Amino acid sequence: MKVSCNVNVHHLTRVEGHGNIQIRIRNGKVETAQWEVVETPRFFEAMLVGKNWDNAPWICGRICGICSIGHTLASIRGVENAFGIVPSEQTRKLRILLKHMETLQSHVLHLYFLAAPDFLNLGSVIPLIEANPDVVKMAAGLKLLANDACDVIGGRRLHPTRTVVGGFTMLPEKGELEAIKKRLEAAIPDLVKTADIFRTFKIPDFKRETEFVSLGGANEYPFIGGELVSTDGVRKPEHEYRKMTNEYCVEQSTSKWSKLSRKSFAVGALARLNNNFALLHPEARKLSESFGLEPVNHNPYMNNIAQLVECVHVTLDSIAIIEELLGSKWDEPRQPVTPKSGVGVGAVEVPRGILYHCYEFDAKGKIVKSDCIIPTSQNHANIQHDIEELARVSGDSGRKDEEIELLASMLVRAYDPCISCSVH
Amino acid sequence: MAQERTYLGVPLHKPKVAFFELSSCEGCQLQIVNNEATLLDFLSLVEIVNFREAMTESSSDYEIAFVEGSVTRADEITRLTEIRRNAAVLVALGSCACFGGVNQLKNRFHDIAWVKREVYGKHHIETEAEAKPLEAFVRVDLKIFGCPIKKEEVEKIVTNIALGRPVTHLKYPVCMECKANENICLFDLGEPCLGPVTRAGCDSWCPNSRMGCWGCRGPADDANVEQLRNIAKKHGISAETMLDRLECFGGFAPHVEEIRGKVKKTGKTAAAKGVRI
Predict the structure, then answer these.
(1) Strands B16-21, B10-11: parallel, antiparallel or unpaired by DSSP?
(2) Counted domains in chain A
(3) A46 interfacial to chain B (CB closer than 8 Å)
(4) Nearest CA to B243 among B219, B259, B265?
(5) For B209, which of A13, A137, A162 is closest by C-beta distance?
(6) Which residue, A82, A206, A422, B74, shows the most beta carbons closer than 10 Å to its own?
């Protein structure tokens, strides 16, 4: 049945930042299908110019309130790569652990508080507090655990205080790590329950051939630094990130867009999983397979499930990392920093996908030029093309306006966009 | 959920609360959601009618509006004015709303055309010449300082508003809290710190982690910035390092302007040498 519809979502809710969806279909023919980003730019790349190197992680963490830890770590890596600093094994492990806990916190927030209400036909999680208090308490408990772990390692869950170029200002007490490990072990049944809940949700059946970009792991599922890869077979070293992103400006968005082999590509949990499936923890891989999620999966709504799979991966991997840390003596928390002129790139997988920070320094360590490329900005073009495809297949589906609006909103939410971050 | 709150047996009025964001990272709102342990209690104290980051429903019927972020584009002035019209109490949430936050760092160039070009090249982009705090445009009833805001402080403030109690800020600096927490003085570790001049209330959040204070809460009453600069000098910390910190969140804008003015008079500004500072 041919449909005519007019969907106009002004400031989509339950996403970070400001974006609009417009879909107009007349007699089955798509007239408009648009993903607009109207967020105000804050000009981070300009504000850094002239600042000393130690300002970069502190200021750049403020690009995003949800993934401030990821931004701080990407910024630190950019500075360290420019100065030729190689983090100690202890620092590397602590950073990965901190990153894992941000991933868990962010994914749980998205899965339960932002995405789940759609599958239950609710406007927010608030009605669930009365209807299903145990589930909400469990979700809040998982988030609290991850946030507490971020406090213990990074000093603060939001805009971390201990993460600096060269390492950490101070280290967690071993007893604190021990306590986090016990809580992580106790969280495993909650993740199993979460999987059971998501198994009852009907993931929309939608597919569009997509190129997926992420870090490519050598021996472990990648989060900090390494090779840049795509499912279309592109491989680049970290410092050639610009060849992977090819940013350009468009009229419909205050965020820049990206492309690679095709007119758009996707980053995020699904991209990481599609590129690094074999490197997932065996339990996480098994869970993924039980949802029929195997590479290369081209359904963007499955990013929700990919996030769920990553929750299991980071939880199990964190337990292993803590065991290693507890089994060795603490080294010095930070190494000295000697600034020098040059360019450094830091690529880090944050919850919503691959993030790049690049800085150019003068001989005194002052920032001459900076560039930050955000996961969601890399996803915008892909969201646009997904929305077009969704509108096209909806044209003769007989769907009502509300159904198309919900499917389109869910599609954007599945990317877990961080819009203010993408514009920065 | 929790039963109706009462005080001396009298049911308490649940204020209708709305959250809004202008130019920001939305982290301060996230701090509210990050109150996992006490979130449910908090939700029983107020009725949230607007929180775009967490819920689809929205309403213009609210009494308390929390506004995060600074004003950087004309449409935000319109939105803010409308929020002010609807709200009985308007609360500036976080450093961006109170002082402009990190967003105001671009103001120091006094050259918005260059700022735009640096990020967007020739592509046209809409923005105001400067990032400004809320009170540059509307009356602000209450400020909650911090980048990010401290959740315990927000809960205390909201509880006080809901109970009709007065809300006051601490007058003394972070340094006092830091000493009470028995931290090693960061100056003695060779680290810069704005603890001696920044308003307390965060329980010396950053110094507790051996990160010197960056002044995100703005100046304490009677802050002596000149004396702080002398302390820094004595510890071999450069004037520029201190300036970076004073400048970071906008709370010390008048002090920074004064210091920069002095630097300019000496005719040795980096800007004069064509270097952007």
Answers:
(1) unpaired
(2) 1
(3) yes
(4) B259
(5) A162
(6) A422
B 74-113: CB under 8 A from A: 76, 101-103, 105-106, 109
Instruction: Mutate one of B14, B209, B238, B247 to test the A interface: name it (highest A CB count within 10 A).
Output: B209
Structure tokens at B235: 């510890």
In A140-159, the residues whose Cβ lies within 8 Å of chain B are 140-141, 143-144, 147, 155-159
User: Which among B162, B196, B221 is the end of a domain?
Assistant: B162
- Averaged pLDDT, A41-50: 98
The pTM of this model reads 0.95
| Mean pLDDT within A213-223 | 97
Question: Which residues in B lie closer than 8 A to residue A133 (C-beta atoms)?
Answer: 1
Q: Are residues B186 and B153 in the same domain?
A: no
| In a shared domain, residues B100 and B127 | yes
**Residue numbers of B between 115 and 174 with CB closer than 8 Å to A:** 115-116, 118-121, 123, 125-127, 131, 147-148
* Complex ipTM: 0.93
Is B1 a domain residue?
A: no
- CB A157 to CB B34 under 8 A? yes
pLDDT (0 to 100) of residue B276: 61
- Residues B225 and B252 sit within 8 Å (Cβ to Cβ): yes
CA dist., res. B48 & res. B122, Å (int):
42
Distances (CA, A) of A68 to A27, A135, A231, A300, A370: 46, 27, 28, 25, 18
Residues B39, B120 within the same domain:
yes
B30 contacts A158? CB cut-off 8 A: yes
Whether B274 maps to a domain, the answer reads: no
Measured over all CA atoms, what is the biggest interatomic distance in chain A, rounded to whole angstroms? 70
User: In A, which residues are within 8 Å of B275 by CB distance?
Assistant: 50
CA pair distance A270, A262, nearest whole angstrom: 18
Number of domain units in chain B: 2
Closest-CA distance of chain B to residue A294, Å:
31
Per-residue confidence (pLDDT) for residue B160, from 0 to 100: 84
Q: What percent of chain A has pLDDT over 70?
A: 100
Position B169 in a domain: no
CB count, 10 Å around CB of B188? 8
Domain of residue B193 covers: 174-266
- Let me know whether B104 and B37 are in one domain: yes
Q: Which residues make Cβ contacts (< 8 Å) with residue B171, sequence separation at least 6?
A: B199, B220, B221, B222
**Are residue B129 and residue B195 in the same domain, yes or no?**
no
> What is the model's pLDDT at position B1?
40
Residue A354: which domain range? 43-378
For A345-394, the pLDDT digits (tens) are: 999 999 999 999 999 999 999 999 999 999 999 999 999 999 999 999 99
pLDDT level of residue B266 (50, 70, 90 thresholds): low
Q: Tokens 């964190």 belong to which residue?
A: A318
Q: Which residues in chain B are closer than 8 Å to A126, comparing Cβ atoms? A: 43, 48, 54-55
Q: Residue A335: which CATH number?
A: 1.10.645.10
Q: What is the CATH number of the domain that holds B64?
A: 3.40.50.700
Using one digit for the tens of pLDDT, what is the confidence trace for B241-264?
A: 999 999 999 999 999 998 887 766
Q: Are residues B189 and B68 in the same domain?
A: no
